[in-house]
Each structure stands twice: as C-alpha cells, then as structure tokens.
Write a structure and sequence with these properties.
48% of the residues lie in helices and 13% in strands. It is α/β, with parallel strands linked by helices and 304 residues long. Helix 3 (29-41) packs antiparallel against helix 4, helix 5 (64-79) packs antiparallel against helix 12 (285-292) and helix 6 (106-119) runs parallel beside helix 7. It binds guanosine-5'-triphosphate (GTP) and magnesium ion.
Length: 304
Amino acid sequence: MSWWQRLKEGLKKTSDRLETAFRFTKLDAAALEEIEDALIMSDMGVSTAQVLIRELAAAKPQSPEEAKAFLKERLTALLQPAEGVLDVRSAQPFVILMVGVNGAGKTTTIAKMAQKMKAQGLQVGFGAVDTFRMAAIEQLKVWADRTGAHFYAKEMGADPAGSAYDAYQAAIKNKDDVLFLDTAGRLQNKAQLMQEVQKIIRVIRKINPAAPHAVLLTLDATVGQNALSQVAAFKEMADVTGLLITKLDGTAKGGILAALTQTYHLPVYYIGVGETAEDLQPFDAAAFADGLLGGSHGTDSSNA
Ligand SMILES: Nc1nc2c(ncn2[C@@H]2O[C@H](COP(=O)(O)OP(=O)(O)OP(=O)(O)O)[C@@H](O)[C@H]2O)c(=O)[nH]1
Ligand SMILES: [Mg+2]
C-alpha cells in the first residue's frame, strides 16, 4: 500500500460516514445536520465543523458532488496554513528537541525523518536524552546504526540535561547538520517532566541561545481528543514549535488533526501512517482533506 492508500484507509470511517451523508437529494437542514455529525464524529471539533457547515449552506451547492467539492476546498484552505516545512539548513547543527508522551512515536519518527535527511545528503546525529530506560537508549542506538546517524549517549541514569549538552557539543565537533534529542515521555509526574524539559533547554542554550531550533511534539492520533490536552501540557513546558502526528493509519478519527491545527495554530511537519520510513510524509492539506472526504488524491502515487 502507498502512504496515500494507508492514509485513506485510516480516514475511511469518516469518509464512509460522509459518503452516506452526501447522498442527499436536496441540501436541506437534515442533510446539513448529517454532514455536520459525520464531521464532528471525526473529532475535527464542533466549531470547525460548524464553520464548514455554515459556509456549505451559504454556498447552496446544487448537487452532492458540488457540495463535496466545496467542502474539500474549504477544508483544504483551513488546513493549509498548518503545512510546515522544517528548514534545517538554517542552522548547523540544527537542534531538534523531540517531546511527547511515551509511545507517541518519537523515536521511530526521529529515525524516519533522519532517513529522509540522509537521502538529502545531510549528516544526522541522535542524542539519547531519555536516560531513564536502558531500552530507550538501545532502541535509539539501533536506529542510529540503521540510518547511519551519529549516536551520542551517556550511561543509563545520567543527567538528561547533561546528556543533551554533551550530545550537542559532539554534534558540533562532528559537524552534524541536524541533531535530534530524544527525550523521555514519562517521569514520575508532570511537574518533574516539566522541570526536566526546561532544564534541557536551559543547558543547551548555554552553547547556543538560539537552540533548540525546533521543539517538535509527537502526537499519537489514536488518542483522539486527548491529543489536545497533550499540546496544552507540553506548550506549558516548552515553546513547542511544531507537531508530528503519527498513527493516522490506526484511527477512525483523523479529524483530530484539524482540531489540533485550528486550536493551536502550530505547523504540522509530518504525518505518520505506518511503520516504515515511506509512511512518514510531509503534511499536505489537500491530500488530507481529500482522504477525509473520500477522494482519489494521489492514487497514481505521484504525491509520495
Ligand atoms: N501504525 C503506526 N505505528 C506507528 C507509527 N509511528 C510509530 N508507530 C509505532 O508506535 C510504537 C511506539 O513508537 P516509539 O517511537 O517507540 O514511541 P516513543 O514516543 O519513542 O515512546 P517512548 O520512548 O516510550 O517514550 C512503535 O511500535 C512504532 O512502530 C505510525 O505512524 N503508524
Ligand atoms: Mg522513544
């Protein structure tokens, strides 16, 4: 399956519901309500769904096809400002602090992004800052070996901020173009996690006040509405500069992406629709809207 097919599969519950809602003969109040319900059930957020429905009603489409095309265009326009492009060539090394709850997909997304960067001829380094679990350090090491990234780690239990500092210095010495800092997703409590993240940032700023150049929050789309509170929590800890949304292949409620971008106005750099590097793709608003509305975008895979 191509990434687009995986995305489409992932968004199928919503697109199927919309398909049914779009079988109206006249776009009356009942038909509008059914479309609105399908949008809300995708977790896109009530206010976004209402905006779209208001616009749809005002547009007075003459056929289901016209209505669908209109909605697709409006949803694309709504999501387009969230299409993010990470300009990693703006600093060297460009330091990316990866944050997110455990299991969100931070480490695997680092590996996938690194693979893309390597293909562009960039030299990449991984800093193991989650020093609480041996498995976390080992997993990152495996990915570093596989992607040909430099690997920077201290012993298990080492101070995370100190590990980040050392990794940054080593990456400078090795002239890495990009340095990923893989942090822990869970500590005993939120206050501790907050302190830890803030300490990491404080310490690496002693090397360069402009670092980290990006703080990327990885979100698992399958957690639904909970993703919204995760953004709130991590924004409190650090100046999150963008989102990575994983597991859109495994959720019936991909609309959460729209809710996230409409609520927080953060760029989405990549979306994940599976386990392989190929399954991580830049966020493309038109492709996403098309998937949600059951379109045929990129079936020729020219979009990959
Ligand atoms: N289906 C699917 N699985 C994914 C995707 N992204 C990541 N995963 C899987 O999610 C699981 C957790 O990913 P990790 O990268 O280990 O998550 P993490 O955030 O680093 O977790 P911790 O290190 O425990 O904090 C792995 O089995 C990944 O293969 C995706 O887009 N789709
Ligand atoms: Mg991890």
